[in-house]
Amino acid sequence: MIRQLPDLLIDPVVRMALAEDLGRAGDVTAQACIPEGARMKAVFAARKPGVLAGIDCVRLAVLALDPQATIVVKLRDGEAFEAGAVLAEVEADARAFLAAERTALNLLGRLCGIATLTRAYVDAVAGTRARIADTRKTTPGLRALEKHAVACGGGANHRFGLDDAILIKDNHIAVCGGVSAAVRRARAAVGHLMKIEVEVDSLDQLDQALAETPDVIMLDNFSLEALTEAVRRRKTSPFGAVILEASGGVSLETVAAIARTGVDVISVGALTHSAPALDIGLDVTSG
Question: Disulfide check for 134: which of 45, 150, 198, 205 has CB 3.0–4.6 Å away?
Answer without folding.
Answer: 150
